[in-house]
Amino acid sequence: MIRAVQSDLDETSRHVGRDRLSPHVLEAMRRVPRHEFVPEDLKPHAYENRPLPIGYGQTISQPYIVALMTELLDLKPDDTVLEIGTGSGYQAAVLAECAREVYSIEIIPELAETAQSRLLRLGYRNVTVKTGDGYFGWEERAPFDAIIVTAAATHIPPPLVHQLKPGGTMVIPVGPPFMVQHLTLVKKTEDGKVSTRQLLPVAFVPLIGGKRTP
Prior knowledge:
One of its GO terms (cellular component) is cytoplasm. Keywords: Cytoplasm, Methyltransferase, S-adenosyl-L-methionine, Transferase. The active site is at residue 61. By secondary structure, this protein is of the alpha/beta class. It has a single domain (2-202), classed as Rossmann fold (3-Layer(aba) Sandwich). It is 29% helix and 27% strand. The chain is built from six helices and nine strands. The strands form two sheets. The chain has a seven-stranded mixed sheet with strand order 5-4-3-6-7-8-9. A hairpin with a 2-residue loop joins strand 1 (52-55) and strand 2 (58-60). It is globular.
């Protein structure tokens, strides 16, 4: 799996500006047991470099995408991260290997409950999962050093930008549902200025929930 991830990084390096994983992200990808996060009948395919269905119309992301999005956050050991879209909990586990605290929001209650139980069973006690609409973030735990969104939004949610610390980074797929989207890097400077950069085309399930206003 790691070899396939590195191969994909080589192919996309000119778009994303990264041609290899940093040691702590590489170690996180090696340590997290992906087979624990997929349905029983798909365990033989757990270490293939592709997304897999996890039920409720959701997927566990391709390992390359998980590694790339984690890498783009430039996480430090003391960082606090917000994840939007817990899903199976796999991305949260990778983040938990790289950061001090991970807060994750999942809109589907059954997935949120299963992911939290799974993460605790695997020893990830620095991950807190709640059920909710991730578009609005987690104001009570803000601000965050980094924010990662694992479902495609039609626009960058203003509440998430607001909850990002000065000097922080957000990675989010942006685009219409079930069409071409773009993985987007959002940076907030120390004085609060926000910049965005489209990196490469991607395909994510849509960010679902209530009314959204750009």
